[in-house]
Amino acid sequence: MAIELEDLGLSPELADVMQRLAAVGAQVARIISRNGVERDLAAGVGTNAGGDGQKALDVIADDLFRTALETSAVAYYASEEQDEVVSLGAGTLALAIDPLDGSSNIDVNVSIGTIFSIFPAAEGANESFLRQGTEQIAGGYIIYGPQCALVCSFGRGVQHWVLDLETGSFRRVADIKLLPQDTSEYAINASNYRHWPAPIRAFVDDLVAGAEGPRGRNFNMRWIASLVAETHRILMRGGVFLYPGDERKGYEHGRLRHVYECAPIAFLITQVGGGATDGCEEILTALPDKLHARTPFVFGCAAKVARVAAYHDLPGEETSALFNNRGLFRS
Ligand SMILES: O=P(O)(O)OC[C@H]1O[C@](O)(COP(=O)(O)O)[C@@H](O)[C@@H]1O
Ligand SMILES: [Mg+2]
Ligand SMILES: [Mg+2]
C-alpha cells in the first residue's frame, strides 16, 4: 500500500489510481533526493508542446507517471510534457498532470511538485479535459520539499498525507482546515511589474504602500516560483497568489496552464473556502479552449481574491500608478 485511503469512500478504480500516483510520487521523491549523485536532473533535454525547455526530471517524472497508469482505469492521460492526449486503453477515468512543477527550482534544491486532476472519461480524448473544473472527481498535488506530502480533494474537504520515509508510504494526517482569513502574505513575480495590467499594478501598489498607504497595514511578499509550494503555503497559512496576464509576448494569458495547473489548485482552494479566478471570473466554471491553454490565475483567501476582482472594476484613472487614494478599498 502506497497511501492510506480508508474511510474516503473512493471507487476501486479511483483508489487504485491514487495508489499508483502515490507510489510514483514516493519514487520521484527518492530520485530527487539523489540529484547530482548519478545524474543531473536539471539538465536541459528538449522542449515541450508549450515551448518550455524540458529538464531531465520533467521527462523522467512524465515517463514514470504515464507508465504506472498504463494498466489502470485511466483511459486518457494529458500531460504538460506531451503534445497531445495519450490514450492508455479502455477505462473510466481521465487524468491530467503537470508531472514536475517548478522545474526552475530543481538545481537549487527548493520545493517542487506534481499536480494532478482526475475526471470521469468523456466520449473522446480532448473532450475529457476541455470541460469545467467543477467536474473533477479529484484534484491534488505532491510536494517534494523538506517533507514530501500529498494533498488531494475528492470534493469533500481537502485531505493531507505525509510520506513516511521509514515505510515508503503516505500516512494520512489531519485534513486541511478552512483558509485563515487575515494573513498578510501575497505572492507575485514582482519583476514583471512594468508588464502588468493597471488593476494588478494598482492592487500591488497598495500592498507595497503598507501602513502608510490606503490599506493602512503592512504586507509581506513571497515568491518561490513553484506553484505547488505557493499553494501549500497558502493552504497552511493563507494569503493570495497572482500570476496575471501581462504584456510580454506569450504571456497574454499569464504563464500557468488551465487544465493541469490551475483547475486542480482551484478545486483544492475552493474546498477550504478560498477563491480562484482569472482575476475576475471563476476558474472552475471557465472552459479551456485547448489542452495546453494558459490562464491568468489568482487564488487564495476569498476576500483577497474578491479584492483583486474589485480593482478590475475601478475606473481607469483610479488604477493609474499615481493614484494613491483609492478610498473605496481601504480596509
Ligand atoms: O518563473 P516565473 O515566471 O516566475 O514562473 C513561475 C511559475 O512557473 C512554474 O514553474 C510553471 O510550472 P512548470 O515548472 O511546470 O513549467 C510555476 O510552478 C511557477 O508558479
Ligand atoms: Mg507547473
Ligand atoms: Mg511542469
Q: Can you give a write-up of this model?
A:
This protein has helices at 12-33, 56-69, 198-208, 227-237, 258-271, 302-313, and strands at 44-47, 53-55, 74-79, 86-87, 93-101, 112-120, 138-144, 148-153, 159-164, 169-173, 185-187, 220-221, 240-243, 275-277, 297-300. The chain is of the alpha+beta class. It has an 8-stranded mixed beta sheet with strand order 4-3-5-6-7-8-9-10, with helices on both faces. A 5-stranded mixed beta sheet has the order 12-11-13-15-14, with helices on both faces. The mean pLDDT is 95. The relative contact order is 0.13. The chain folds into 2 domains: 12-173, Fructose-1,6-Bisphosphatase, Chain A, domain 1 (2-Layer Sandwich); 185-329, D-Maltodextrin-Binding Protein, domain 2. 25% of the residues lie in helices and 22% in strands. Helix 1 runs antiparallel to helix 2 and helix 3 (198-208) crosses helix 6. It is globular. The protein binds 1,6-di-O-phosphono-beta-D-fructofuranose and magnesium ion (2 copies).
